[in-house]
Amino acid sequence: MSARFWRQRTKALPSISVLVMSMLLTGCFGNDEDWHGKNISGLMPELEFDLMNSQGEPVSGSDYDGRVRMLFFGFTSCPDVCPTALQKLNQVTSSLAPELQDEVLTLFVSVDPQRDTPERLANYVDFFGDNIVGLTGTEPQLRELAKRYRTTFGYDEPGPDGNYAVSHSSAIYVFDRDGSARLLIRPGLKAEEIRHDLVALIQEDS
C-alpha cells in the first residue's frame, strides 16, 4: 500500500487510529468481489454530523439524505492529495449517465477552519464540479467527526509567512442513500472502478 494514503506531503499521521491502519493493511474490512472499494458495511457508523456549509449555513448529515454520498477530509491549501482526489471524483460523477449524476454527492470537509472561510471554501469546491458540497466547523466539531470515522488530522507549526501544512487521511468514505457506511475508497482506485461501485449503490436502492 502506498505510504501516501496516510500522508500529506511527506508527513505521517503519528496519531492515526491503530485500529483503522491495521484493518487497511491486513484487509480486515473485507472486500467482496462485487466491490472495488473496501467493504465497510457494519464496521463504521452511519453518516451523521452538524457542520456549516460553504454558504455559512448550519447543516446536518440528514440534509443530504436520499443520495449516495462520498465523504472526504481535506483543506483548500492542500497542494496535492485534495485536488487530485476531487478531480478524480468529478471525473467519476461527470462520466455517469445524466440521469444518475444527481444521485451522487461529494461532501468535502475542510479540517482547516482558521483559513477556510465559507467564501474560500465555496470558491474551491465550485472549481471541482456541481455535485460537491463544502463543509467545515469548529475544531472540536471536526475532531469529533474525524474520531467518529476513526481518523484524525493535525497542524504543522506556522512558517514565517504564517502558512502551515495540515496532515490528514486521504480515505474517502462512501455512504448509501440511507446514510449507512458502505465503502472505503483508497487513492490507488481507478476512476472506472469507483464509477462501478457508485452505480451499483445507486441501483441497489432504486
Automatic annotation (TrEMBL):
Highest taxon listed in the record's lineage: Bacteria
Annotated keywords: Copper
Domain Thioredoxin span(s) in chain numbering: 40-203
A Pfam short name: SCO1-SenC
InterPro entries per record: SCO1/SenC (IPR003782), Thioredoxin-like_sf (IPR036249), Thioredoxin_domain (IPR013766)
UniProt family annotation: Belongs to the SCO1/2 family.
Designated name of the protein: SCO family protein
Organism (species): Vreelandella gomseomensis
